[in-house]
Write a structure and sequence with these properties.
This protein is of the alpha+beta class. The chain contains eleven helices and nine strands. Helix 4 runs antiparallel to helix 5, helix 7 packs parallel to helix 9 and helix 7 packs antiparallel against helix 10. The longest helix has 32 residues.
Length: 396
């Protein structure tokens, strides 16, 4: 097995700098030692491994682009984390790439001084409270959670749903509609404030390690000092959502890498009719389709990362467009569609053993359904792309 080609069949990792390749290998070594051997156990028990937080912090990978790493490296880190455990990668993205990134981009100097370093070092944890019970894809225009200014405080009422890290986080980036202006504002919500109720969403068939919560907010009083200073409308944070959508594309790559790893190993080791099942043409055809899907998905994400890098190298006088929302939407919809096919083929190669978590594939197969859905469903992302290529919106 050690002599077989990498699942990165076209060698995209070579596009990283030497230092980034070395760091990525350190991440792989850590995941292989600390995460992969335990991930199925966490998933089966639907428990979050809080003991992993100091170890994750020691990787020093909070918001890597803010630290000078490339977007390509940042994406490949998420792919590798997903390859080891999709749930842990999701925690990492919610905390670092949404909550911590928001502090970097929109926090006041006081807010950064109070929270940023502790959040980067995972001494405190964050969540991103946007989706509501009755508003998912239309939440920007239909948000029902309200914030009413009362002197130096805001009174917040409403509900949020599917909030990752929501059961245990210390803070949330909470979105609410200003009752006076009808604009959307962001708040740093202390999750222990009176009036905040958190209820675990149980009985999931995907991302079972992620602690999703229903949040209810009843006359929660948030000081003006905890309103995100740099957010005055929903459009202010479109690049946050665009970035997270792109990272879900990288998760789709990681899911496929994991499925291919498991399926190829099983095909080589599993014997039927006196030889490895890898020696049968139909099994080889399925493995080739899997690595083809993975390679195509990886190629698309590499190009998106290059566009992101172009934007970072632009200036105020000579801006560069970078990756726009339709490109992010295409990447997310395409890679997750390929992922769905890839994990199904992998599950098929394992036969009956593909439906028990003992072999790892059942977990990968189930987690794919969550990745396919969040950060905009396949249909919504497709319609975003459709609007961009026709000039006509099919979204009401």
């Amino acid at each position: 097995m050690d002599q077989l080609p990498s699942a990165d069949f076209l060698g995209f990792e070579s596009l990283l700098s030497n230092a980034e390749r070395e760091k990525l290998q350190d991440v792989r070594d850590f995941l292989g030692k600390e995460v992969t051997p335990r991930a199925v156990e966490w998933w089966n028990r639907a428990e979050f491994p809080h003991d992993m937080l100091p170890k994750l912090a020691a990787l020093n990978l909070s918001t890597p682009v803010q630290q000078g790493y490339s977007h390509l490296f940042s994406g490949m880190v998420i792919a590798e984390m997903t390859r080891a455990d999709t749930s842990l990668a999701t925690f990492f993205m919610v905390h670092h790439d949404l909550f911590v990134e928001a502090l970097h981009e929109f926090g006041s100097e006081d807010q950064k001084a109070r929270l940023l370093q502790d959040a980067m070092d995972l001494r405190i944890t964050g969540a991103f409270a946007l989706t509501e019970p009755q508003h998912g894809s239309d939440v920007a225009g239909g948000m029902a959670t309200t914030a009413t200014r009362r002197g130096d405080e805001w009174v917040i009422n409403g509900a949020k749903r599917w909030i990752g890290n929501g059961t245990f986080c210390d803070y949330m980036l909470l979105w609410a509609r200003d009752t006076e202006t009808q604009g959307i504002r962001g708040f740093i919500l202390d999750a222990t404030l009176p009036g905040v109720t958190r209820t675990s969403i149980d009985n999931k068939i995907a991302l079972r390690t992620v602690q999703n919560a229903d949040i209810t907010l009843e006359n929660v009083r948030v000081p003006e000092a905890d309103r995100f200073a740099g957010i005055s409308s929903f459009s202010d944070t479109r690049h946050l959502l665009r970035g997270s959508r792109i990272l879900v594309g990288w998760q789709a790559v990681g899911q496929q890498l994991a499925a291919f790893d498991i399926a190829r190993r099983y095909a080589v080791e599993r014997h039927q009719f006196g030889r490895p099942i890898a020696g049968f043409q139909l099994v080889q055809d399925q493995l080739v389709t899997m690595i083809g899907n993975t390679t195509a998905s990886l190629a698309m994400m590499v190009r998106v990362a290059q566009l992101q890098e172009d934007q970072r190298s632009g200036t105020a006088e000579a801006p560069r467009p970078g990756a726009d929302m339709p490109q992010a939407a295409l990447a997310k919809s395409y890679t997750t569609a390929r992922m769905r096919e890839t994990v199904a083929l992998g599950r098929n190669i394992l036969g009956g053993n593909g439906i028990v978590t003992d072999y790892g594939m059942a977990k990968v197969f189930a987690d794919a359904e969550a990745v396919y859905t969040y950060e905009g469903s396949y249909e919504i992302n497709s319609l975003i792309v459709g609007r961009a290529i026709t000039g006509v919106s099919a979204i009401a």
